[in-house]
Amino acid sequence: MISNRPFANLRAKPLSPLNPAVVNLIWINVIVFVSLWILSFTPIGGVLFSVLAFSPTWPIYLSFYSVVTSLFVHAGLWHILGNMLWLYFVGIILEDLIGKKHIWKLFFGGGISGVMLFYILSVAFNNTAPLVGASAGISAILVATAIFTPNYRVYLFGIIAIELRWIVVAKIVFDVLGMFGGLNAGGSQAHVGGYIFGALYITELKGIWNFPKITWKKTNFQGRPSRSASVSINNQENSPSQEQIDQILDKISKSGYDKLSKKEKEMLFKASKK
User: Fold this and answer.
1) What pTM, to 2 d.p., does this model score?
2) 153: Cβ–Cβ under 8 A, 6 or more apart, which residues?
3) Could you give the angle at which helices 185-205 and 164-177 cross, rounded to 10 degrees?
4) Is the pLDDT of residue 146 over 60?
5) Where is 201: in which H helix or E strand?
6) What pLDDT, in 10s, does the model give residues 15-29?
7) Is the distance from CB of 1 to CB of 149 less than 8 angstroms?
8) Which domains does the chain have, with CATH numbers?
9) Which helix (H) or strand (E) holds 161?
10) Which of 195, 25, 20, 168 shows the shortest CA–CA distance to 110?
11) pLDDT tier at 230 (50, 70, 90 boundaries)?
12) How many helices (H) and strands (E) does the chain have?
């Protein structure tokens, strides 16, 4: 297991850019939750909660902002506690491997994808219940972690060793089965949207497939293409090779992050900044 988790550092400043993305996401969710809880004792509390939540009955062109704001709204203490535990203990594993910018992209991309799938199915099946919670974005991070490091082992209750991918597979199965009739069908639909985005994102990042990219050539005033310099990070002298990174990831999967040498951790850190 990874021991240098900064969330346990009492000197860490809330929302500091030096914090891991996972830690700052947790801070944002907690701040929003506490703020709404305090406001719930005032006349505007319930109204604000409804405005920030995503409602499939509202026209999407009027409530487009709630596609994002709903990701930081939770229905109760156990709701946010469960989501934040998943986000921290799994998200910190992936962030150590691929860097913070990908965590932000996975969270928001998965969250938005989950909300949109929920909206499409709600319109199709005449569902009127609102959607709140960060679980769609967290689902993208969960499936991305399982795909990126499938042999990573965690310890259930501190005793039973199990590969993370099997926990994620079980969660996916339950969510797929619960999409059309479970107690939290809307939540399961959003989770599946997050899983789809997370799987597509991480497989593209690993080079399994390439999403089409559109590039525009800049031209100078004479209409001729301007010359641009391109630098390949992989060819830099101090940058670790893909083979070295693969060996480090295999070592993490088999023995855990703590077994890495100082040099291997530095190589992994450099790779995460690409």
Assistant:
1) 0.77
2) 161, 162, 163, 164, 253, 256
3) 140
4) yes
5) helix 185-205
6) 899 999 999 999 999
7) no
8) 6-213 (1.20.1540.10)
9) strand 160-163
10) 195
11) very low
12) 10, 2
